């Protein structure tokens, strides 16, 4: 059916209920999003503080003094300043590939633990920074921490959650991101009047969410999928009983075992992931984070105070406007949690894309439109950009697939962060028409090519692609369950 509107109905309905244990476990894991969100929110705030700029980026302060008339859009244009923001995401990109190996070999929680510890070190280095080198090294450590946590947490949540609540529980990660952004905006607002101590506190407090996920990772159990993959079969069975709240887990456990056996036959997941049967998942693992960043959302999240100052807002007003958008971000993410398993992924993707397009087409009522734009992103492309790639891959390529998702996300986050101030200087607010063009493309892409995945067990996803009007031709043989059993795979060629 054109438009990708076919909804695959799995023939397998596993027994079990939503237990308090799985809810608490997923909430603790989701707190890892706090470190990513806090960093997104804090960097834009401190780079709008004159005392911070005077210490580390005096050329920007000088440019602000000289900026008049048509030159207003260029007053923050500094390659060194953008490197402060963007270096983190380049580090996260590289770290995500190492994280995929750690996640597969040692489990999801070990990746979370390592990410939290490294992020904590980076937060302390930034808080005590005396020169630009200390700032950049600290940002690189923060990036390594984010690369590991963002690689492992969405996969962890998708594997732990029951199919009927997988969307809502996975979006807990995005909810934590938005809370981290809001907390950072709030801290920036109060830190403004505290002099040098203010920006140091703002940067150093990133250690608080890092400590939360570090402690959380120490107490979290590992997922049944990961335990089976590492040969801990009996522990996996006990864990599955615990998270499903029933002893009758034979059918689901058998599917997990068979998925694991299939994954062990794949000696080179990075080669297997480019095979035809994985082409749909690979396409979305690349294009969803690509489009997510080209919505322009991180321009708002990184540089909201800078943008509002460019428009003539004072220091307090610009930070207050950023705080308002942070509140909208949190509230709209709650909307996504409520709606994602009720109305599905496609409906939110399409509605959010349409709303973002409308709000980017007119920049007269800036604060109101920015809030509407942020709301659209927060209940669609924000959480779903992490949810969908984490749930669509079979076990044998899941860590590699999530690594690709994170690395593409971080690559384009880096590019946007590095280029935005220069593009704003050259294109002024016509830059948002540039992003609006990509919103049109990505919304059409979802409408045509994304099947609905809500309530489909994570090990049953091949059936979704097999039923799709376009992707079905890439899945060879008869699909049974969530992996390629009874499918004769083509020989893997060296790449």
Annotate the secondary structure layout.
Elements: H1 20-30, H2 33-46, H3 50-56, H4 58-66, H5 79-106, H6 108-127, H7 132-160, H8 166-191, H9 196-204, H10 207-219, H11 224-229, H12 233-244, H13 250-264, H14 269-272, H15 279-293, H16 297-310, H17 315-343, H18 345-360, H19 366-378, H20 381-392, H21 398-427, H22 431-449, H23 462-466
Question: Can you put this structure into words, describing what you see?
Answer:
By secondary structure, the protein is mainly α. The chain has one domain: Up-down Bundle (Growth Hormone, Chain: A). It is 72% helix and 0% strand. α2 packs parallel to α8, α8 crosses α20 and α17 runs parallel beside α19. The two termini are 34 Å apart. The N terminus and C terminus are likely disordered. Keywords: Membrane, Sugar transport, Symport, Transmembrane, Transmembrane helix, Transport. It is a multi-pass membrane protein. One of its GO terms (molecular function) is monosaccharide transmembrane transporter activity.
CATH superfamily: MFS general substrate transporter like domains
Percent of residues in β-strands: under 5%
Q: Count the helices. How many?
A: 23
| Tertiary shape | globular
Unreliable segments of 5+ consecutive residues: 1-11, 479-495
What fraction, in percent, of the residue positions are helical? over 70%
Query: For the CA atoms, what is the radius of gyration?
Result: 22 Å
Which structural class fits the helix and strand makeup? mainly alpha
Order of helices and strands: HHHHHHHHHHHHHHHHHHHHHHH
Overall number of domains: 1
Extended strand count: 0
Tell me the distance between the termini: 34 Å
Mean pLDDT: 82
């Amino acid at each position: 059916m054109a438009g990708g509107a076919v909804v695959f109905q799995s023939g397998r309905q596993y027994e079990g209920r939503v237990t308090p244990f799985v809810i608490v476990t997923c909430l603790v894991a989701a707190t890892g999003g706090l470190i990513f969100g806090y960093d997104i929110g804090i960097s834009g705030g401190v780079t709008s503080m004159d005392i911070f700029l005077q210490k580390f980026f005096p050329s920007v302060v000088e440019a602000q003094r000289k900026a008049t008339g048509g030159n207003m859009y260029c007053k923050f244009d500094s390659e060194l300043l953008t490197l402060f923001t963007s270096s983190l995401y380049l580090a996260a990109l590289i770290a995500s590939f190492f994280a995929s190996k750690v996640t597969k070999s040692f489990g999801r929680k070990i990746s979370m633990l390592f990410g939290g510890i490294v992020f904590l070190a980076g937060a302390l280095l930034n808080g005590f920074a005396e020169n630009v080198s200390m700032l950049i090294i600290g940002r690189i450590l923060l990036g390594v921490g984010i690369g590991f946590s963002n690689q492992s947490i969405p996969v962890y949540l998708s594997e732990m959650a029951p199919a009927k609540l997988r969307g809502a529980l996975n979006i807990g990660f995005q909810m934590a991101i938005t809370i981290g952004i809001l907390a950072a905006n709030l801290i920036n607002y109060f830190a403004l009047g505290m002099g040098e101590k203010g920006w140091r506190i703002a940067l150093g407090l990133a250690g608080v969410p890092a400590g939360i996920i570090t402690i959380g990772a120490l107490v979290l159990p590992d997922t049944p999928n990961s335990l089976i993959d590492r040969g801990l079969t009996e522990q996996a069975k006990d864990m599955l009983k615990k998270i499903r709240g029933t002893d009758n887990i034979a059918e689901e456990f058998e599917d997990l075992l068979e998925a694991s056996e299939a994954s062990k036959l794949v000696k080179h997941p990075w080669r297997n992931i480019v095979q035809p049967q994985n082409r749909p998942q690979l396409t979305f693992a690349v294009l969803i984070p690509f489009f997510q960043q080209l919505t322009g959302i991180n321009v708002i999240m990184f540089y909201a105070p800078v943008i509002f100052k460019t428009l003539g807002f004072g220091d307090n007003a610009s930070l207050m406007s950023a705080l308002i958008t942070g509140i909208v971000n949190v509230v709209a993410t709650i909307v996504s949690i409520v709606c994602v398993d009720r109305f599905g992924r496609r409906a939110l993707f399409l509605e959010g894309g349409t709303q973002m397009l409308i709000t980017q087409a007119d920049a007269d009522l800036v604060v109101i439109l920015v809030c509407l734009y942020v709301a659209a992103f927060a209940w669609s492309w924000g959480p779903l950009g992490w949810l969908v790639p984490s749930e669509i891959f079979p076990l044998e390529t899941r860590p590699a697939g999530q690594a690709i998702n994170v690395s593409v996300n971080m690559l384009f986050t880096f590019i946007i962060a590095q280029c935005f101030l220069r593009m704003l200087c050259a294109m002024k607010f016509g830059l948002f028409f540039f992003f609006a063009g990509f919103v049109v493309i990505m919304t059409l892409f979802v409408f045509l090519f994304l099947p609905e995945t809500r309530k489909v067990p994570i090990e049953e996803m091949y059936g979704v692609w097999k039923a799709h009007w376009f992707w079905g031709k890439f899945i060879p043989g008869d699909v049974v369950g969530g992996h390629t059993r009874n499918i004769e795979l083509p020989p893997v060629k060296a790449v």
